[in-house]
Write a structure and sequence with these properties.
The complex is a heterodimer of chains A (206) and B (228). Chain A is 32% helix and 30% strand. The longest helix of chain A is centred in the C-terminal third of the chain and has 15 residues. Chain B has one domain. Classes of the chains: A alpha/beta (206), B mainly alpha (228).
């Protein structure tokens, strides 16, 4: 299956202040690409536009599957995203969060399946604890799991290594490697530890 | 693991998630019940016989209490997603229709829970003689559902506004007033009128009609508001 994402002259303004201007790029599965730039250069905004969370002021982002253009509903089903400002439900437990996102995505799962997934990210023993009690690294691992619970071909990661120790970084590296075998991974970062994830796609604020 | 796809499934997931969150935090239920029970008890002490307050006034007061309790709790279902930064996770996983219908179902359930506690307490403390019980129960169900639809619609519209408190008040007044007035009129018919169902049929039709208009209209607007 051939997945492709095209950014066609994408621009974004907030209150007439341009954040992104005339950005064009194209990526095809499988592979990993990075969006680089300093803080405030618009990396997160661009990633949200790619995810469909923001509408560009100019241009468009097109998802193609075997040459066929996807609509908004179809795009939602093929994207998973992890970002610092996308939170999980803190009063709910790890397994409740995972169960909700799986059911919302239309994935029929048993609790045994969810526990197996939590085992993969070393969270099985904390499956029934509220997310509010988790460390930053544990929350990040759970976020990655919820983003991948519907097995999307496109994974978008915004500053995935922020506040993570070396073990957390290794988990992210492993996730990127596995996902890149069959799908598209786009990483927005200015962390030097993440620059080698893939080919630079876009350099912002340069 | 297998997959299915429909807004009904999404709405069910959102409804279940919101019920679970409410059971854990009791934020909306606490706000709604605290206001409603306090108001009913205070009204009971002040207006119970032999105060001589007319049934018409008691019918109005019941729905005013229910309305303000709804405003206190139901309007926050969308705002809370923005404030806890879970809104984008919801946008990524669920269609706007699934979100709206799930939140509406949750608000209706909350409104019914409010009425189950408040209305019997009100009837008991204010010693209201109900002539037509079946009509009264129907009015409470339809009236509370219509108010839930109205507050959900307005809550959805103002969720991303910066001055949402003021905007909610301005928008809620014209949207919630028609079902409120009709519910009061139908309640008076159930409590006081000889005519009962015959007197209230028009009111019940208006309540159903209101819901049939406000829900689809809100859905159309919500899709654009929720997306950005």
């Amino acid at each position: 299956m051939n997945w492709q994402i095209e950014l066609r002259r994408v621009g974004k303004e907030y209150n007439e202040r341009p954040v992104l201007q005339d950005i064009s790029a194209s990526v095809t599965a499988p592979g990993v690409w990075t969006i680089l730039g300093p803080n405030g250069s618009g990396k997160s905004t661009l990633l949200k536009i790619i995810a469909g969370l923001l509408t560009p002021t100019e241009g468009e982002v097109v998802y193609l599957h075997n040459g066929e253009r996807l609509n908004a509903q179809q795009r939602r089903q093929v994207v998973g995203m992890v970002a610092p400002d996308i939170a999980l439900y803190r009063p709910l437990t790890a397994i409740e969060n995972l169960r909700f996102f799986a059911r919302a995505r239309g994935v029929r799962v048993q609790d045994g399946d969810l526990l197996s997934l939590l085992e993969q990210v070393h969270l099985r023993s904390r499956a029934h604890d509220p997310v509010a009690t988790f460390s930053t690294g544990m929350v990040q691992r759970l976020k990655v799991l919820t983003a991948l619970v519907h097995r999307p071909p496109v994974l978008l990661l915004d500053e995935p290594g922020s506040n993570l120790d070396e073990a957390g970084m290794e988990f992210i590296r492993h996730t990127v490697r596995v996902q890149a075998e069959h799908g598209i991974v786009i990483v927005a970062t200015n962390d030097t530890r993440e620059l080698d994830y893939g080919e630079p796609l876009i350099q912002l604020g340069a | 693991m297998s997959r299915s796809s429909s807004w009904a499934r999404e709405a069910l997931a959102v409804f279940g998630k919101d019920c679970l969150l409410e059971l854990r935090t009791r934020v909306a239920l606490g706000a709604v019940l605290l206001f409603a029970v306090t108001s009913v008890v205070a009204s009971g002490f002040a207006l119970a016989p032999p105060s001589g307050v007319a049934g018409e006034v008691k019918a109005s007061l019941l729905w005013v209490i229910v309305f303000f309790a709804a405003i206190a709790g139901l309007s926050r279902v969308f705002v809370v997603e923005e404030e806890t930064r879970t809104a984008d996770a919801l946008r990524l996983a669920v269609s706007p229709t699934g979100v709206f219908v799930g939140k509406l179902a949750f608000n209706i359930a909350l409104m019914w829970a409010l009425c189950v506690v408040t209305v019997p307490l009100y009837l008991l403390l204010l010693e209201v003689p109900v002539r037509h019980w079946s009509l009264f129960v129907t009015v409470v169900i339809l009236g509370s559902t219509a108010l839930a639809c109205a507050t959900t619609a307005v809550g959805a519209i103002v969720a991303k506004a910066t001055m949402r408190g003021a905007l909610f008040g301005v928008l809620a007044f014209p949207v919630a007033l028609p079902p409120l007035l009709v519910a009061i009129h139908a309640t008076k018919a159930a409590w006081l009128s000889e005519g009962g169902w015959r007197m209230a049929t028009g009111d019940l039709q208006v309540l159903v009609g209101f819901m049939l208009v406000i829900v689809p209209a809100s859905l159309l607007v919500f899709e654009h508001i929720w997306s950005e």
